[in-house]
Specification:
Order of helices and strands: EEEHEEEEHEHHHHEHHEEHHEHEHEE
Subcellular location: Cytoplasm
Structural class: alpha/beta
Helix content: 40-55%
Bound molecules: adenosine-5'-triphosphate
Number of strands: 15
Shape: globular
Mean pLDDT: 91
Keywords: ATP-binding, Cytoplasm, DNA damage, DNA repair, DNA replication, DNA-binding, Nucleotide-binding, SOS response
InterPro entries: DNA-binding_RecF, DNA-binding_RecF_CS, P-loop_NTPase, RecF/RecN/SMC_N, RecF_2
Distance between the termini: 23 Å
Number of domains: 2
CATH class of the largest domain: Alpha Beta
CATH topology of the largest domain: Rossmann fold
Protein name: DNA replication and repair protein RecF
CATH architecture of the largest domain: 3-Layer(aba) Sandwich
Radius of gyration: 23 Å
Low-confidence stretches: none
Function: The RecF protein is involved in DNA metabolism; it is required for DNA replication and normal SOS inducibility. RecF binds preferentially to single-stranded, linear DNA. It also seems to bind ATP.
Length: about 375
């Protein structure tokens, strides 16, 4: 799918903007704080129903204005045109319209504008704690599997109940029987979660290692594996059985700590480049490239799921990549509509500038062609 045009009114620092887009490469260029990310944010809000950098809807309305709106015209791969609108009035609830018709549930909006965003916070995927990588897995898997989404919600609910039991009821009569009941349920849901994550990580590894090799001119080999306490991962039953045993073995420790120490809520992703752990030893550029490769795998995953290429939004990804990586990145996805923000268009090689649309942004106005 492709975005044909975006119309903004009172969105962030934009007064009025009507901007058309190239079906392939678009480069939004401008100095700091001119409105480059605001334009990506407007597109994102129309696709996901919320911003990636604020939970306060009112932030999106231009200072002093009473409302904001975004109107996006896009074209599906079968040629059908669709107009998606986002409207917000200060003090009122936001509204979404598709081809002029109001949408009542956000779930009806999701998937209409298929977007993949990479922005500087995505580096957390590499740099920060395992919780960040679990969040990534949960988000990705929930996108493609509603059953996974339900399983993880249920797993977290059971986990909370077990932790509550460990903290408050360990001296109560019948504690052992109660904990055993929770353990069986936790192992059942936990095994489903772990099984799906292992399967997903397997394809994530296949896709992201190819992307990474492309972006690094085959100099680096990216490897992603799922790290869990469960060794016997043959099938659902073996995972469940081992998890159940580990829960029982760890009960004494869990009682002392007041929380459950094994299960998918403690698992992680191991991310290696040329067999070296990237979190501890990777350079900034390597970490950024690895985060990009993982995130960009979504393109392939979404394509397989819905049979259509998503639109790629890249916010400020170029700054820590050398020229070769920048060129290879653009080249790797040259058939996907891409919208990139950058402060310096010279960073992007000349041959790509000729094939792209440059959108020059200055103080909330597009001064481009
Ligand atoms: N609700 C709002 N009303 C008016 N201006 C706003 C609003 N919210 C943010 N801004 C302004 O938007 C500008 C920031 O825009 P944006 O984040 O798009 O910058 P950018 O061009 O991506 O910059 P950088 O290169 O530094 O990332 C700031 O000047 C900020 O004051």
């Amino acid at each position: 799918m492709k975005i044909k045009s975006v119309v903004l009114e009172n969105f962030r620092n934009y007064d009025k903007l009507k901007q058309s887009f190239d079906p392939l490469l678009n480069i939004i260029v401008g100095d700091n704080a001119q409105g480059k990310t605001n334009l990506l944010e407007a597109i994102y809000v129309s696709g996901f129903g919320k911003s990636f950098r604020t939970n306060k809807e009112a932030d999106l309305i231009k200072f002093g204005a009473a409302y904001a709106s975004v109107k996006i015209e896009c074209e599906r791969e079968n040629g059908a045109l669709e107009i998606i609108e986002y409207r917000i009035k200060s003090g009122n609830k936001k509204a979404f319209l598709v081809n002029g018709v109001n949408i009542t549930k956000i779930s009806e909006l999701l998937g209409r504008l298929n977007l993949i965003l990479f922005y500087p916070d995505d580096l957390k995927l590499i740099k920060e704690s395992p919780a960040e990588r679990r969040r990534f897995l949960n988000r990705e898997l929930s996108h493609i599997s509603h059953i996974y989404c339900l399983d993880i919600i249920e797993y977290n609910r059971i986990l909370m109940q077990r932790n509550e039991l460990l903290k408050k009821f360990q001296h109560k009569a019948g504690f052992k029987d109660m904990v055993e009941v929770w353990d069986v349920q936790l192992a059942e849901k936990g095994a489903r979660v772990i099984g799906k994550r292992i399967e997903f990580t397997h394809s994530l590894n296949e896709i992201s290692s190819k992307i990474h090799a492309n972006i690094t001119d085959y100099q680096e080999h990216l490897k992603v594996t799922y790290v869990t306490s469960v060794k016997n991962r043959e099938n659902y039953d073996t995972i469940k059985q081992e998890l159940l045993e580990q829960l029982a073995q760890n009960l004494e420790t869990d009682l002392k700590r007041g929380f459950t120490s094994v299960g998918p809520h403690r698992d992680d992703l191991d991310i290696l480049i040329n067999d070296i752990n990237i979190k501890s030893y990777g350079s900034q550029g390597q970490q950024r490239t690895a985060a990009l490769s993982l995130k960009l795998s979504e393109i392939e995953i979404v394509r397989k799921e819905i049979g259509e290429s998503p639109i790629l939004l890249l916010d400020d990804v170029m700054s820590e990549l050398d020229h070769n990586r920048q060129r290879d990145l653009i080249y790797a996805f040259k058939e996907v509509q891409t919208i990139i923000t950058t402060t310096d268009v010279l960073h992007i090689l000349d041959d790509y500038i000729n094939d792209s649309k440059i959108i020059q942004v200055e103080n909330g106005k597009s001064i481009s062609h």
